[in-house]
């Protein structure tokens, strides 16, 4: 698979509740303009939900650092990436608790990553040089794609601050 994007754009938002709504609107508008395909529209509510969850995760755990949101459109898929500037590397498990396990906890946390994983075709999270990231992939036309993400991918495109 060619990792080259046919379109990329990046936004930066301050870590304040409500800013995720503006970024969600911009990403959805960009997808509508760039793809102009009916096939991706089945993902519109999922895109809004995962972006909101990932941005709110950054607001809650990002220690007030700005949050970067990137969109990369490829021929058969598009990727969303949300990065907050937290560099304190907490122990992370790529294997999330099940819904049953979360319900049994006295103070259940971790619903956001579970929800994101269920709504996108592929999700990865962890730490890279810029901080904590969540990458989400949505397939267009049901294409299968199994390559791994590289943490040091460079973001091309425009940048807008909010």
Question: How would you characterize the overall build of this protein?
Answer:
- A six-stranded mixed β-sheet has the order 4-5-3-2-1-6, covered by helices on one side.
- By secondary structure, it is an alpha+beta fold.
- It has helices at residues 19-35, 44-61, 99-104, 111-119, and strands at 7-13, 67-74, 77-84, 122-128, 131-139, 158-161.
- The protein is built from four helices and six strands; from the N terminus they run βααββααβββ.
- The model is unreliable at 142-162 (pLDDT under 50).
- Helix 1 (19-35) runs antiparallel to helix 2 and helix 2 runs antiparallel to helix 4.
**Ends apart, CA distance between termini:** 33 Å
How many structurally independent domains?
A: 1
CATH superfamily: Histidine kinase-like ATPase, C-terminal domain
CATH architecture classification: 2-Layer Sandwich
**Based on helices, strands and strand pairing, what is the structural class?**
alpha+beta
The gross shape turns out to be globular
Query: At the third CATH level, what is the topology name?
Result: Heat Shock Protein 90
The mean pLDDT is 78
Radius of gyration: 15 Å
Main β-sheet, spatial strand arrangement: 4-5-3-2-1-6
Q: Report the uncertain regions.
A: 142-162
Q: Tally the helices: what do you get? A: 4
Give the beta-strand count. 6
Give the helix proportion (percent range).
Answer: 25-40%
- Main sheet record: 6 strands, mixed
Name the beta content range: 25-35%
């Amino acid at each position: 698979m060619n990792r080259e994007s046919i379109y990329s754009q990046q936004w930066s938002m301050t870590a304040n509740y409500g800013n995720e709504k503006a970024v969600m609107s911009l990403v959805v508008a960009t997808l509508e303009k760039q793809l102009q395909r009916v096939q991706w529209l089945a993902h519109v509510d999922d895109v809004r939900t995962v972006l909101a969850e990932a941005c709110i995760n950054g607001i809650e755990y990002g220690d007030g650092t700005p949050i970067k949101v990137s969109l990369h459109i490829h021929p058969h898929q598009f990727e969303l990436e949300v990065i907050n500037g937290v560099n304190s590397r907490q122990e992370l498990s790529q294997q999330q608790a099940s819904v049953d396990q979360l319900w049994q906890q006295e103070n259940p946390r971790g619903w956001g990553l579970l929800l994101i994983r269920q709504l996108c075709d592929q999700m990865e999270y962890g730490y890279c040089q810029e901080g904590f990231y969540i990458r989400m992939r949505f397939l267009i036309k049901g294409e299968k794609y199994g390559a791994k993400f590289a943490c040091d991918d460079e973001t091309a495109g425009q940048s807008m601050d909010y």
